[in-house]
Protein backbone atom coordinates (compact mmCIF):
# COMPACT_ATOMS: atom_id res chain seq x y z
CA UNK A 1 0.00 0.00 0.00
CA UNK A 2 1.15 3.51 -0.80
CA UNK A 3 0.89 5.37 2.52
CA UNK A 4 1.05 8.83 0.95
CA UNK A 5 -2.00 11.05 1.16
CA UNK A 6 -2.55 12.86 -2.13
CA UNK A 7 -4.44 16.11 -2.49
CA UNK A 8 -5.96 14.78 -5.71
CA UNK A 9 -6.04 11.37 -7.39
CA UNK A 10 -7.15 11.39 -11.02
CA UNK A 11 -8.25 8.13 -12.64
CA UNK A 12 -7.77 8.31 -16.41
CA UNK A 13 -5.00 10.04 -18.38
CA UNK A 14 -6.99 11.10 -21.43
CA UNK A 15 -7.41 14.80 -22.34
CA UNK A 16 -9.78 15.57 -19.45
CA UNK A 17 -7.58 13.90 -16.84
CA UNK A 18 -4.33 15.45 -18.00
CA UNK A 19 -5.98 18.87 -18.43
CA UNK A 20 -7.24 18.65 -14.86
CA UNK A 21 -3.88 17.50 -13.46
CA UNK A 22 -1.90 20.14 -15.35
CA UNK A 23 -4.20 23.00 -14.39
CA UNK A 24 -4.31 22.06 -10.71
CA UNK A 25 -0.49 22.16 -10.61
CA UNK A 26 -0.51 25.46 -12.50
CA UNK A 27 -2.90 26.99 -9.96
CA UNK A 28 -1.54 25.16 -6.89
CA UNK A 29 2.10 24.20 -7.57
CA UNK A 30 2.49 22.55 -4.16
CA UNK A 31 -0.50 20.24 -4.62
CA UNK A 32 0.31 16.55 -4.51
CA UNK A 33 -1.33 14.99 -7.57
CA UNK A 34 -1.47 11.34 -8.64
CA UNK A 35 -2.62 10.41 -12.15
CA UNK A 36 -3.46 6.76 -12.85
CA UNK A 37 -4.29 4.96 -16.09
CA UNK A 38 -4.81 1.30 -16.94
CA UNK A 39 -2.94 1.72 -20.24
CA UNK A 40 0.71 2.27 -21.07
CA UNK A 41 1.31 5.48 -23.02
CA UNK A 42 1.45 6.27 -25.85
CA UNK A 43 -1.59 4.17 -26.72
CA UNK A 44 -4.03 4.08 -29.64
CA UNK A 45 -7.48 5.54 -29.00
CA UNK A 46 -10.36 5.19 -31.51
CA UNK A 47 -11.35 8.75 -32.37
CA UNK A 48 -11.89 10.86 -35.47
CA UNK A 49 -9.40 13.29 -33.98
CA UNK A 50 -11.08 16.60 -34.81
CA UNK A 51 -10.10 19.29 -32.29
CA UNK A 52 -11.37 22.84 -31.96
CA UNK A 53 -8.64 25.51 -31.64
CA UNK A 54 -10.64 26.70 -28.62
CA UNK A 55 -8.82 24.10 -26.48
CA UNK A 56 -5.84 26.49 -26.41
CA UNK A 57 -7.90 28.66 -24.03
CA UNK A 58 -7.67 25.99 -21.33
CA UNK A 59 -3.97 25.18 -21.57
CA UNK A 60 -1.08 27.64 -21.30
CA UNK A 61 1.41 25.80 -23.51
CA UNK A 62 1.67 25.52 -27.32
CA UNK A 63 -0.05 22.56 -28.98
CA UNK A 64 1.56 22.86 -32.40
CA UNK A 65 3.78 19.79 -32.10
CA UNK A 66 0.80 17.61 -31.12
CA UNK A 67 -1.33 18.63 -34.12
CA UNK A 68 -1.19 16.19 -37.02
CA UNK A 69 -2.91 18.33 -39.66
CA UNK A 70 -4.70 21.67 -40.00
CA UNK A 71 -7.81 21.69 -42.13
CA UNK A 72 -9.61 24.71 -43.59
CA UNK A 73 -12.04 23.01 -45.95
CA UNK A 74 -15.21 21.43 -44.58
CA UNK A 75 -17.80 19.75 -46.78
CA UNK A 76 -21.31 18.91 -45.54
CA UNK A 77 -23.19 16.34 -47.61
CA UNK A 78 -26.97 15.83 -47.42
CA UNK A 79 -29.55 14.65 -49.95
CA UNK A 80 -26.76 14.28 -52.50
CA UNK A 81 -25.87 17.95 -52.16
CA UNK A 82 -22.42 19.20 -51.10
CA UNK A 83 -21.94 22.52 -49.30
CA UNK A 84 -18.37 23.64 -48.67
CA UNK A 85 -16.89 26.13 -46.23
CA UNK A 86 -13.30 27.33 -45.97
CA UNK A 87 -13.67 30.05 -43.32
CA UNK A 88 -12.49 28.12 -40.26
CA UNK A 89 -9.33 26.31 -39.24
CA UNK A 90 -9.78 22.97 -37.52
CA UNK A 91 -7.10 20.77 -36.01
CA UNK A 92 -6.68 17.06 -36.64
CA UNK A 93 -4.80 14.91 -34.15
CA UNK A 94 -3.68 11.33 -33.67
CA UNK A 95 -4.76 10.48 -30.15
CA UNK A 96 -1.70 8.34 -29.43
CA UNK A 97 0.40 11.48 -30.05
CA UNK A 98 -1.94 14.17 -28.69
CA UNK A 99 -2.84 12.38 -25.46
CA UNK A 100 0.76 11.46 -24.74
CA UNK A 101 1.83 15.07 -25.33
CA UNK A 102 -0.70 16.33 -22.77
CA UNK A 103 0.41 13.63 -20.35
CA UNK A 104 4.07 14.62 -20.66
CA UNK A 105 3.13 18.25 -20.01
CA UNK A 106 1.27 17.24 -16.85
CA UNK A 107 4.21 15.12 -15.67
CA UNK A 108 6.60 18.02 -16.29
CA UNK A 109 4.80 20.02 -13.58
CA UNK A 110 5.45 17.34 -10.98
CA UNK A 111 2.30 15.25 -11.40
CA UNK A 112 3.04 11.65 -10.39
CA UNK A 113 1.90 9.13 -13.01
CA UNK A 114 1.31 5.40 -12.73
CA UNK A 115 0.60 3.49 -15.96
CA UNK A 116 -0.76 -0.03 -16.45
CA UNK A 117 -2.75 0.31 -13.23
CA UNK A 118 -6.48 -0.45 -13.28
CA UNK A 119 -8.52 0.95 -10.42
CA UNK A 120 -10.99 -1.61 -9.11
CA UNK A 121 -12.91 0.32 -6.48
CA UNK A 122 -13.20 3.55 -4.52
CA UNK A 123 -14.15 3.51 -0.84
CA UNK A 124 -14.86 6.40 1.51
CA UNK A 125 -12.15 5.96 4.12
CA UNK A 126 -12.93 8.71 6.63
CA UNK A 127 -13.93 12.37 6.80
CA UNK A 128 -10.59 13.49 5.38
CA UNK A 129 -9.84 11.10 2.49
CA UNK A 130 -11.03 8.40 0.13
CA UNK A 131 -9.36 5.09 -0.67
CA UNK A 132 -8.59 4.18 -4.28
CA UNK A 133 -8.07 0.44 -4.71
CA UNK A 134 -6.08 -1.01 -7.61
CA UNK A 135 -4.70 -4.49 -8.06
CA UNK A 136 -2.01 -4.97 -5.39
CA UNK A 137 -2.02 -1.22 -4.62
CA UNK A 138 -4.04 1.28 -2.63
CA UNK A 139 -3.90 5.07 -2.59
CA UNK A 140 -5.53 7.71 -0.38
CA UNK A 141 -6.72 11.04 -1.73
CA UNK A 142 -8.61 14.06 -0.46
CA UNK A 143 -10.32 14.53 -3.85
CA UNK A 144 -10.87 11.78 -6.43
CA UNK A 145 -11.43 12.74 -10.08
CA UNK A 146 -12.93 10.13 -12.39
CA UNK A 147 -11.80 10.79 -15.96
CA UNK A 148 -12.22 7.18 -16.98
CA UNK A 149 -13.97 7.72 -20.32
CA UNK A 150 -17.24 6.31 -21.61
CA UNK A 151 -16.17 2.70 -21.14
CA UNK A 152 -15.22 3.25 -17.52
CA UNK A 153 -16.89 1.10 -14.89
CA UNK A 154 -16.18 2.93 -11.65
CA UNK A 155 -18.79 5.69 -11.86
CA UNK A 156 -21.41 3.17 -12.94
CA UNK A 157 -20.47 0.78 -10.15
CA UNK A 158 -20.66 3.60 -7.60
CA UNK A 159 -24.08 4.65 -8.92
CA UNK A 160 -22.98 8.18 -9.81
CA UNK A 161 -22.73 7.97 -13.61
CA UNK A 162 -25.06 10.29 -15.57
CA UNK A 163 -27.72 8.77 -17.79
CA UNK A 164 -26.12 9.56 -21.15
CA UNK A 165 -27.25 8.71 -24.67
CA UNK A 166 -25.21 5.96 -26.32
CA UNK A 167 -23.88 6.38 -29.84
CA UNK A 168 -22.41 3.35 -31.60
CA UNK A 169 -19.41 4.34 -33.70
CA UNK A 170 -17.12 2.49 -36.07
CA UNK A 171 -13.92 3.96 -37.45
CA UNK A 172 -11.34 2.94 -40.02
CA UNK A 173 -7.82 4.38 -40.13
CA UNK A 174 -6.66 4.53 -43.73
CA UNK A 175 -2.92 5.11 -44.02
CA UNK A 176 -1.67 6.39 -47.35
CA UNK A 177 1.29 8.23 -48.86
CA UNK A 178 -0.90 9.59 -51.66
CA UNK A 179 -1.64 13.30 -51.92
CA UNK A 180 -5.26 13.35 -50.64
CA UNK A 181 -7.51 16.39 -51.01
CA UNK A 182 -7.31 17.44 -47.33
CA UNK A 183 -11.02 18.17 -46.94
CA UNK A 184 -13.13 17.23 -43.93
CA UNK A 185 -16.45 15.61 -44.83
CA UNK A 186 -19.62 15.35 -42.72
CA UNK A 187 -22.10 13.14 -44.60
CA UNK A 188 -25.74 12.63 -43.60
CA UNK A 189 -26.60 10.39 -46.56
CA UNK A 190 -25.20 7.16 -45.10
CA UNK A 191 -27.08 6.77 -41.81
CA UNK A 192 -30.59 7.65 -40.64
CA UNK A 193 -29.63 8.20 -36.99
CA UNK A 194 -26.20 9.80 -37.30
CA UNK A 195 -23.63 10.68 -39.92
CA UNK A 196 -20.48 9.47 -41.63
CA UNK A 197 -17.22 11.38 -41.54
CA UNK A 198 -13.88 11.68 -43.26
CA UNK A 199 -11.24 13.51 -41.23
CA UNK A 200 -8.00 14.18 -43.14
CA UNK A 201 -4.65 13.39 -41.55
CA UNK A 202 -1.08 14.04 -42.68
CA UNK A 203 -0.63 10.38 -43.54
CA UNK A 204 -4.12 9.29 -44.52
CA UNK A 205 -7.75 9.51 -43.48
CA UNK A 206 -9.87 8.73 -40.41
CA UNK A 207 -13.16 7.46 -41.83
CA UNK A 208 -16.11 6.57 -39.64
CA UNK A 209 -19.82 6.33 -39.09
CA UNK A 210 -21.99 6.67 -36.01
CA UNK A 211 -25.59 5.85 -35.15
CA UNK A 212 -27.78 6.08 -32.06
CA UNK A 213 -28.60 2.87 -30.22
CA UNK A 214 -32.34 2.99 -29.55
CA UNK A 215 -33.80 0.18 -27.45
CA UNK A 216 -35.23 -2.42 -29.82
CA UNK A 217 -32.91 -1.25 -32.58
CA UNK A 218 -29.82 -2.51 -30.77
CA UNK A 219 -28.06 -4.91 -33.09
CA UNK A 220 -29.64 -3.33 -36.16
CA UNK A 221 -27.23 -0.43 -36.50
CA UNK A 222 -25.31 -2.36 -39.23
CA UNK A 223 -22.38 0.04 -39.06
CA UNK A 224 -19.73 -2.23 -40.67
CA UNK A 225 -21.75 -2.57 -43.88
CA UNK A 226 -22.55 1.14 -44.02
CA UNK A 227 -18.94 2.09 -43.35
CA UNK A 228 -17.72 -0.28 -46.06
CA UNK A 229 -19.98 1.49 -48.56
CA UNK A 230 -18.88 4.92 -47.37
CA UNK A 231 -15.11 4.39 -47.47
CA UNK A 232 -15.34 3.11 -51.04
CA UNK A 233 -16.32 6.65 -51.96
CA UNK A 234 -12.75 7.67 -51.09
CA UNK A 235 -11.00 4.85 -52.88
CA UNK A 236 -10.70 2.45 -49.94
CA UNK A 237 -11.72 -0.89 -51.42
CA UNK A 238 -10.75 -3.28 -48.63
CA UNK A 239 -10.44 -3.05 -44.84
CA UNK A 240 -7.28 -3.89 -42.97
CA UNK A 241 -9.02 -5.34 -39.90
CA UNK A 242 -6.19 -4.18 -37.64
CA UNK A 243 -7.23 -0.57 -38.41
CA UNK A 244 -10.99 -1.10 -37.93
CA UNK A 245 -12.35 -0.12 -34.52
CA UNK A 246 -15.86 -0.11 -33.05
CA UNK A 247 -16.69 1.70 -29.82
CA UNK A 248 -19.60 3.33 -27.93
CA UNK A 249 -19.69 7.06 -27.23
CA UNK A 250 -21.53 8.61 -24.26
CA UNK A 251 -23.39 11.68 -25.52
CA UNK A 252 -24.62 14.43 -23.21
CA UNK A 253 -28.28 13.95 -22.31
CA UNK A 254 -29.29 16.23 -19.42
CA UNK A 255 -28.09 18.05 -16.33
CA UNK A 256 -26.79 15.67 -13.70
CA UNK A 257 -25.00 15.86 -10.36
CA UNK A 258 -21.28 15.43 -11.08
CA UNK A 259 -19.98 15.49 -7.50
CA UNK A 260 -20.58 12.81 -4.91
CA UNK A 261 -18.78 13.41 -1.64
CA UNK A 262 -15.11 13.67 -2.58
CA UNK A 263 -15.58 12.24 -6.08
CA UNK A 264 -15.79 14.41 -9.22
CA UNK A 265 -16.71 13.33 -12.76
CA UNK A 266 -15.06 14.90 -15.83
CA UNK A 267 -14.70 14.04 -19.51
CA UNK A 268 -16.84 11.54 -21.39
CA UNK A 269 -18.15 9.77 -18.29
CA UNK A 270 -19.60 13.15 -17.25
CA UNK A 271 -21.40 13.48 -20.59
CA UNK A 272 -18.75 15.68 -22.21
CA UNK A 273 -19.67 14.73 -25.78
CA UNK A 274 -21.65 16.95 -28.13
CA UNK A 275 -24.97 15.14 -28.87
CA UNK A 276 -25.14 16.74 -32.31
CA UNK A 277 -21.60 16.20 -33.61
CA UNK A 278 -20.09 13.70 -31.13
CA UNK A 279 -17.19 16.11 -30.57
CA UNK A 280 -15.58 15.16 -27.28
CA UNK A 281 -12.01 16.45 -26.95
CA UNK A 282 -12.79 20.14 -26.47
CA UNK A 283 -15.52 19.70 -23.80
CA UNK A 284 -13.36 17.07 -22.09
CA UNK A 285 -10.39 19.43 -21.78
CA UNK A 286 -12.71 22.23 -20.71
CA UNK A 287 -14.30 20.06 -18.00
CA UNK A 288 -10.82 19.21 -16.69
CA UNK A 289 -9.99 22.91 -16.58
CA UNK A 290 -13.22 23.79 -14.73
CA UNK A 291 -12.72 20.98 -12.23
CA UNK A 292 -9.11 22.07 -11.68
CA UNK A 293 -10.20 25.61 -10.80
CA UNK A 294 -12.77 24.38 -8.30
CA UNK A 295 -10.44 21.75 -6.79
CA UNK A 296 -7.73 24.40 -6.37
CA UNK A 297 -10.20 26.43 -4.30
CA UNK A 298 -10.97 23.36 -2.21
CA UNK A 299 -7.25 22.86 -1.52
CA UNK A 300 -6.66 26.52 -0.70
CA UNK A 301 -9.62 26.78 1.68
CA UNK A 302 -9.32 23.21 2.96
CA UNK A 303 -13.08 23.07 2.47
CA UNK A 304 -14.44 20.03 0.63
CA UNK A 305 -17.96 21.51 0.52
CA UNK A 306 -16.79 23.90 -2.22
CA UNK A 307 -16.43 20.91 -4.54
CA UNK A 308 -20.20 20.74 -5.02
CA UNK A 309 -20.07 23.96 -7.02
CA UNK A 310 -18.38 22.14 -9.90
CA UNK A 311 -21.72 20.69 -11.03
CA UNK A 312 -23.03 24.21 -11.63
CA UNK A 313 -19.72 25.27 -13.20
CA UNK A 314 -20.12 22.44 -15.67
CA UNK A 315 -23.76 23.22 -16.39
CA UNK A 316 -23.17 26.93 -17.03
CA UNK A 317 -20.04 26.51 -19.16
CA UNK A 318 -20.67 23.20 -20.95
CA UNK A 319 -24.00 21.57 -20.15
CA UNK A 320 -26.34 24.41 -21.13
CA UNK A 321 -24.81 24.61 -24.59
CA UNK A 322 -24.80 20.83 -25.07
CA UNK A 323 -28.42 20.85 -23.93
CA UNK A 324 -29.30 23.14 -26.81
CA UNK A 325 -27.42 20.81 -29.16
CA UNK A 326 -29.42 17.92 -27.69
CA UNK A 327 -32.69 19.58 -28.74
CA UNK A 328 -31.38 20.05 -32.27
CA UNK A 329 -30.13 16.48 -32.35
CA UNK A 330 -33.54 15.17 -31.27
CA UNK A 331 -35.35 16.82 -34.16
CA UNK A 332 -32.62 16.02 -36.66
CA UNK A 333 -32.63 12.32 -35.81
CA UNK A 334 -36.43 12.09 -35.70
CA UNK A 335 -37.15 14.16 -38.81
CA UNK A 336 -33.84 14.06 -40.65
CA UNK A 337 -35.17 14.13 -44.21
CA UNK A 338 -37.55 17.01 -43.47
CA UNK A 339 -35.02 19.15 -41.62
CA UNK A 340 -31.84 18.58 -43.65
CA UNK A 341 -32.91 20.99 -46.42
CA UNK A 342 -33.08 23.72 -43.75
CA UNK A 343 -29.50 23.22 -42.64
CA UNK A 344 -27.72 22.36 -45.89
CA UNK A 345 -26.98 25.93 -46.79
CA UNK A 346 -23.72 27.85 -46.79
CA UNK A 347 -25.01 30.06 -43.97
CA UNK A 348 -25.92 27.03 -41.87
CA UNK A 349 -22.61 25.25 -42.31
CA UNK A 350 -20.68 28.44 -41.50
CA UNK A 351 -22.79 28.82 -38.36
CA UNK A 352 -22.07 25.23 -37.42
CA UNK A 353 -18.34 25.75 -37.95
CA UNK A 354 -18.48 28.95 -35.87
CA UNK A 355 -19.62 26.74 -32.98
CA UNK A 356 -17.11 23.95 -33.61
CA UNK A 357 -14.20 26.35 -33.91
CA UNK A 358 -15.14 28.06 -30.66
CA UNK A 359 -16.12 31.40 -32.18
CA UNK A 360 -19.77 31.00 -31.17
CA UNK A 361 -22.08 28.65 -29.24
CA UNK A 362 -25.21 26.61 -29.83
CA UNK A 363 -27.16 28.94 -27.56
CA UNK A 364 -26.21 31.85 -29.82
CA UNK A 365 -26.91 29.96 -33.05
CA UNK A 366 -29.94 27.83 -32.15
CA UNK A 367 -32.48 30.27 -30.76
CA UNK A 368 -35.80 29.18 -29.28
CA UNK A 369 -37.42 30.78 -32.30
CA UNK A 370 -35.53 28.37 -34.54
CA UNK A 371 -36.51 25.47 -32.30
CA UNK A 372 -40.18 26.44 -32.63
CA UNK A 373 -39.76 26.49 -36.42
CA UNK A 374 -38.30 23.00 -36.28
CA UNK A 375 -41.22 21.84 -34.14
CA UNK A 376 -43.77 23.24 -36.56
CA UNK A 377 -42.04 21.76 -39.57
CA UNK A 378 -41.74 18.41 -37.83
CA UNK A 379 -45.45 18.37 -36.93
CA UNK A 380 -46.45 19.16 -40.50
CA UNK A 381 -44.28 16.38 -41.90
CA UNK A 382 -45.00 12.64 -41.69
CA UNK A 383 -42.76 10.84 -39.18
TrEMBL record:
Gene Ontology molecular function terms on file: oxidoreductase activity, acting on the CH-CH group of donors, NAD or NADP as acceptor
Name of a matching Pfam family: Lycopene_cycl
Coiled coil: none
Top-level taxon in the UniProt lineage: Bacteria
InterPro entries: FAD/NAD-bd_sf, Geranylgeranyl_Rdtase_fam, Geranylgeranyl_reductase
Family annotation (Gene3D superfamilies): FAD/NAD(P)-binding domain
PANTHER family documented for this protein: CONDITIONED MEDIUM FACTOR RECEPTOR 1, GERANYLGERANYL DIPHOSPHATE REDUCTASE
Protein name per Swiss-Prot or TrEMBL: Geranylgeranyl reductase family protein
Source species of the chain: Aquella oligotrophica
Taxonomic path: Bacteria, Pseudomonadati, Pseudomonadota, Betaproteobacteria, Neisseriales
